Each structure stands twice: as structure tokens, then as C-alpha cells.
Amino acid sequence: MKVITGPCVLEDRDTVFKIAEKLKPLSEDKRVEFYFKASFDKANRTSLSSFRGPGLDEGLKIFQEIKEQFGYKVVTDIHESYQAAPAGEVIDILQIPAFLCRQTDLLVAAAKTNAIINIKKGQFLAADAMKHPVEKILNTRGISEVNFENSEKTGVWLCERGNTFGYGALVVDMRNLILLRQYAPVIFDATHSVQIPSTGGTTGGNSAFVPYMARAAAAVGVDGFFFETHIDPSVAKSDGPNMLKIEDLYKTINDIFAIKDALGQNF
After folding, report:
1. How far is CA 174 from CA 123, 130, 179, in A?
2. Environment class of residue 168 by beta-carbon count within 10 Å: exposed (0-12), middle (13-18) or buried (19+)?
3. Cβ-defined contacts of 72-76 (< 8 Å, 24+)
4. pLDDT of residue 173
5. Nearest Cα to 18, choosing from 242, 230, 252?
6. CA distances from 54 to 11, 24, 62, 238 (A)
7. Within 10 Å of residue 29's Cβ, how many Cβ atoms?
8. Using an 8 Å Cβ cutoff, are 259 and 213 in contact?
9. What is the 3-state secondary structure (H, E, C) of the chain?
10. How far is it, in rounded angstroms, from Cα 207 to Cα 4?
11. What is the pTM of this model?
12. Residue ranges of the chain whose pLDDT lies below 50
């Protein structure tokens, strides 16, 4: 099972490396295909004054150090086309943010790298609309037919994190996990699914719901999970309210495997 986890954003170097160290047992779990995730630039923060990260150049240096020190595969978001090529030299998975999942130039630039592409489903889109972003990646990589097998072989994933209906919260339709899997392996974003977007100038959330959402997705069946985690979410510089503490992350992972084992799932 794929597990993508780490702090929301590359904070100061010491904090990032402490979190990376705490995740070593998970990276060594034979049941887990582990990826360390953080953002070098949170370009979609609600407030102009919010912390965004160290930027592309410094961020890629930190990611390279993490790869060398821990042996982790790493994941980061890109927001602009020019970031794809340099990021692709270091990053194993390029993540396309939900609000940008239809941006053709960004998708094509990402597809021209050798990285796996994880496309987050837009909060404003139905599941079947995600066929088209996948098609843009596959076509750029020389594949004409959109299906699970071609996406798995070519390195294209889809990530579900819910839909917004205008009342200040996200709602996850678990049917989408099945529908999306027609087109690509599916990652369930358990922590962003409990966000409460842009409340009072910042994004809120309720991390208490994260384990429940993860268990529900495990029961449906997905190819992996995305969790943002931190040693102390209360001081995280981005997305703290919907993050899991590292110790809670481990418990949730164990719950997921218990569900998968009970149902006899092998993906």
C-alpha cells in the first residue's frame, strides 16, 4: 500500500528532518510503499502574509538531502509549468494541486519529466471529469487509451480529497473512489478531506475525523493514502488543524491494515 506523508510545507530545516526521522519506522514497514511529502512553496495560501516555504531552489536542496540521508522517495506540489523540469530532476512524484488539475500547460510540463504524477481531483469536479487530466498526461507520454492499467504502467495517479458545496466544508463521496479507479490508481487524501477552507483568513479543519475517513476509504478499497503529519500540529506553519500527530498516524495506518486484512484486499 502506498503511503504519502510528511509536513504540509518545508518549514525550518531542523523541524523537517525531525519529522523525517520520526517516520523511519513507517518507511521500513514491508507492507508500505513509503513517500515523504512536503511543499517548497504553498502558492495557494489564503492570506498574503501566510508562510509559503523556502522556494524552489532551497526546497530542492532540502529534498535532495532527505533522499541522501534517509533514502526516501519524495513528493512535492508544483504550481507553475517552469517548476516541472527542475523539480523532476530531484522529485519522485510531482503532485498537481486540486485547483490546478485542469491546467493543460502544467500537466504537459509534468508529463515531460520522468516523475510519477499524482493529480488531485478538484473540489469542483465530478469523478468522471478526471478522465481528461489523466488523458493529457498519458497522451503526452505516448499513450492513447485512458484506463487503470495504462496509468499504473505510465505513472499517473489520482487523489481524492472531497468536494465543496458552498457551506464551508468538504464532503467525500466514497463512490468517487470506485469511479476514479477506472482511470488510474487512487490515493485517498485523508487529512485534506477534513479541511474547512478559508475560515477567518486561514484554512481550518478537524483532525479528529481523519481516522474515520481513512477507515471508510480503506473499506471501499484504494491504492494508497495521503496524510499530512507533524510532531506538533498546533505549531505547524500550514494546515495544522487537519494534520495528524505522528503517533496518531501510526495508529491509523495499523487500523487501515486491519480493515484490508479483514476484507482480504490485496491492493
Report:
1. 14, 15, 9
2. exposed
3. 72/20, 72/27, 72/34, 72/35, 72/36, 73/34, 73/35, 73/36, 74/35, 74/36, 74/37, 75/4, 75/6, 75/35, 75/36, 75/37, 75/38, 75/118, 76/37, 76/38, 76/39, 76/40
4. 95
5. 230
6. 8, 24, 9, 13
7. 16
8. no
9. CEEEEECCECCCHHHHHHHHHHCHHHHCCCCCEEEEECECCCCCCCCCCCCCCCCHHHHHHHHHHHHHHHCCEEEEECCCHHHHHHHHCCCCEEEECHHHCCCHHHHHHHHCCCCEEEEECCCCCCHHHHHHHHHHHHHHCCCCCCCHHHHHHHCEEEEECCEECCCCCEECCCHHHHHHCCCCCEEEECCHHHEEEEECCEEEECHHHHHHHHHHHHHHCCCEEEEEEECCHHHCCCCHHHCEEHHHHHHHHHHHHHHHHHHCCCC
10. 17
11. 0.94
12. none
DSSP bridge partners of 33 = 2
Residues 6+ apart with CB under 8 A from 252: 190, 210, 211, 214, 215, 227, 244
Pairing mode, strands 116-120 and 156-160: parallel
pLDDT digits (tens, 9 = 90+) for 242-262: 999 999 999 999 999 999 999
Q: Is the separation of the CB atoms in 76 and 63 below 8 Å?
A: yes
C-alpha cell, 146: 485512458
Could you tell me the three cell numbers for 136?
493529457
pLDDT, residue 259, reads 97
pLDDT tens digits, one per residue of 33-53: 999 999 998 767 566 766 677
